[in-house]
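@channel sequence for tomorrow's demo:
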Amino acid sequence: MNMQISDTDNKKLAFRVTLHCVMGCGIGDTIGLIIGTALNWTVFPTMVLAVILGFIGGYSLTMIPLLQRGINVKSATKITVVSETASILVMEAAENGTAFLIPGVLFAGFLAPLFWFGLIISVIAGFIAAYPVNYFMISKGLKKAHSHH
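structure tokens (generated this afternoon):
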């Protein structure tokens, strides 16, 4: 049976998938930024750590439920990397690009209101940038990992 999914359903699913992605990336990014600023690292290593942890967070929120459903590690890894990498790349680029554009945010300590303001604005920018990627992948049948959730 071939079921057609409406464009409205694709948009709703893309919204939910993008929220899912921003949660995973946001958790990792925030932890990386807090660690980097707490250790007085310069901007570049702090951003690298945040991006790495963003990917780990984003991948984890997809992979863990797949493993819990009994999908083997190799298959779960393949599903996760194929379905999440483009979205995470776009989200991370938008978040970091936005952070660079907000004066002083990259030098604010994690206790400063500017740090949290910049983080919120960056995460919103990441969501806005990643949504069309997720919508495209869902509408073309390229993103199926979330059907396992």
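heads up for whoever presents: The chain has a mean pLDDT of 89.
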